[in-house]
Automatic annotation (TrEMBL):
SUPFAM superfamilies: Metallo-hydrolase/oxidoreductase
SMART domains in the record: Lactamase_B
Full protein name: MBL fold metallo-hydrolase
Molecular-function annotations in GO: hydrolase activity
Domain Metallo-beta-lactamase intervals: 35-207
Length: 290
């Protein structure tokens, strides 16, 4: 999906449904679409803020204005990339709210990253595990463990509404980058299967528009990843190759500045195939085992 023309609703409060509002941060990029979308769940008697985004004073002020005098039950984070969690600490300090959500993660990565680097300063007051909940007046959010994009990724289900906040696990504009060593393709696929088994009405991703056909989209995402796997095996069946040789063949028509991101997902596929005994690595070269 192409990035829509400006102006974008940066800093504006958008009411999506009775319990859900959205505020867009001014951090648009080829990897964040129009920017990180922070969601405000609840009402005047108490609310939660999901993915407060980067440390950006204008965005923090916009969130404070949207919150008004309502008490904040929790500042919640789906994962700890720098376009999602760094705003949690200053927002918590200004409001007195606890930081609740994914586990902390500080990981040194090798090679270029196309997604945002990890927030090493993230320090939650409470870590949520699968099925644990945060509640306020008239609403309850349930954590779903969805590792893959990152090992600590969570989605949050707004009980009784059919709404699911998907962070970067499912986005409304692009496929998700799975970047080793922390990103794991087998985990990502299992997490997609987990969402496919649910009956959510709407996904609210951190980037891109709301998704009104979740099952159809997730089914397509699973199929897309399986096709990528078949494509890798077909190319390696012709000759042993390095990731840098596979990417131009697999991503024809994709701008070259996006190839580093593609290379990460290809590597994640190869790591998964290697664990399953389908491919083997010799140095930087990969080949099939049959």
């Amino acid at each position: 999906m192409a990035i829509p023309p400006q102006p974008w609703p940066t800093g504006k409060v958008e009411r999506l449904e009775p319990l859900v509002r959205r505020v867009l941060a001014a951090n648009a990029s080829p990897f964040t679409f129009t920017g990180t979308q922070t969601y405000i769940v609840g009402g005047d008697e108490g609310l939660a803020v999901i993915d407060p985004g980067p440390v950006d004073e204008d965005h923090l002020v916009a969130l404070e204005q949207a919150i008004g005098n309502a008490p904040i039950v929790a500042v919640m984070c789906t994962h700890t990339h720098r376009d999602h969690s760094p705003g949690a600490r200053p927002l918590a300090e200004r409001t007195g709210a606890p930081i609740v959500g994914c586990a902390p993660l500080a990981l040194e990565t090798l090679g270029p990253r196309a997604d945002a680097p990890f927030d090493k300063d993230y320090a939650p007051d409470r870590v949520l595990s699968e099925g644990e909940q945060v509640s306020g007046p008239g609403w309850t959010l349930t954590a779903l463990a969805t590792p893959g994009h990152t090992s600590n990724h969570l989605c949050f289900a707004l009980e009784g509404t059919g709404a699911l906040f998907t962070g970067d696990h499912v986005m409304g504009w692009s496929t998700t980058v799975v970047a080793p060593p922390d990103g794991d393709m087998a985990d990502y696929m299992a997490s997609l299967d987990k969402l496919q088994a649910r009956d959510d009405r709407t996904y609210y991703p951190a980037h891109g528009p709301a998704i009104g056909n979740p099952k159809q989209l997730v089914r397509g995402m699973i199929g897309h990843r399986r096709q990528r796997e078949k494509q890798i095996l077909r190319l390696l069946g012709k000759a042993a190759q390095e990731v840098g040789e596979l990417v131009p063949q697999m991503y024809k028509g994709v701008p070259e500045f996006l190839w580093p991101a593609a290379a990460m997902s290809v590597t994640a596929h190869l790591n998964d195939l290697e664990r399953r005994g389908i491919v083997a690595r010799s140095g930087e070269t990969w080949q099939t085992t049959n």
